[in-house]
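Sequence only, no structure available. Ideas?
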Amino acid sequence: MTLKELGIEHKRIDKILVGYINFRGEIPDILPKIDEVYEIVKDHVSGPPIAIIDYGVYSEGGKDIELCFPFKYKKELEGITLKYLERIEVLSIMHQGTHDSLKETFQKLSNYTQEHVILGTAWLRLVYHKYNQKNTEENQIEIQYNLHQWDERLERSLERVMSEEVKNEIMRDREKFFIIESSYEDRIQWLKDMLNRLDKVANEDQKYNIISCCAHEFSKKRIDYMKNIYKKTKDIDEVIKEMQKDYAWYENPVRKGDLIYLSKIPGNPDGYEKAQNIEEKKKNYCHCRFINDNLDKGISPTFCYCGTGWYRQLWEGILGKPIKIKIVKSLLKGDETCEVAIQLPQELNLI
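Reply:
I predicted one. Tokens follow.
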């Protein structure tokens, strides 16, 4: 089925000035907050409230939620923070009714992205075009699935590292085979062919600098938290010690001299434990939707530099200095696990 037949719209949303509050909670907590915040901002709003749920930050206190109201102009108000929401590209679907049935509507979006191997970010937006706490059946909530524009990131990286001619050759046929409505098979084949073209013209440093910048965005709040620990202690080991308290997010980094080693944990731990053979284990081990069902398709291990970009963002954010990451083990190289070695800057004198 097409996007139109499914009631899904692909659109770009421009930069928006908003006033917002941040709280921890669950989706049903949003409606009471809307009424509460609206009383403060009502003379200055220019559009419906937007709830941004950050799944890159989690705690026992609930989801990290920013409740935003578009503002006509900059206006300082007590308890309200101003900022711009950056321009984004989304898949959008309208939900009519209560929060209880929101999952069913979202599932239509999720099914489409799975079938077409379309990546999203850690952020989900809910736009409350109509809301009524007393009669929630009247709610009209637009679900916006924030797209991770992997190919656009790739293009920007190629522009930075390679020549215009090389960039155009590597990106060849993207408009035919790697758009939102492209089939799963076409998108994977284009990815494979693109990597083969890149492998012919780029050295390892170039491939690292290009593909690592295509990674999913690491939570800035998490980076800032670790950065503050390093700023206070000036001790890498104190940062690692804090990371080791949260195995599900940071795995288990171990420092040996000026190298930090870590192995990925399974992307689907339950499926990994129940796997009956090594192929099933690998499929459930891999975190990447481009790769986990395509480990036997001959995709270049160069793609795994994308995974190193996750750690690159984290450690460059903490240290404020460039780092290099080596792939030690990779499923695409035939290994049974994925392991990286993070090379810390020499000026830290950690050898």
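The radius of gyration is 22 Å.
Hope that gets you unstuck.
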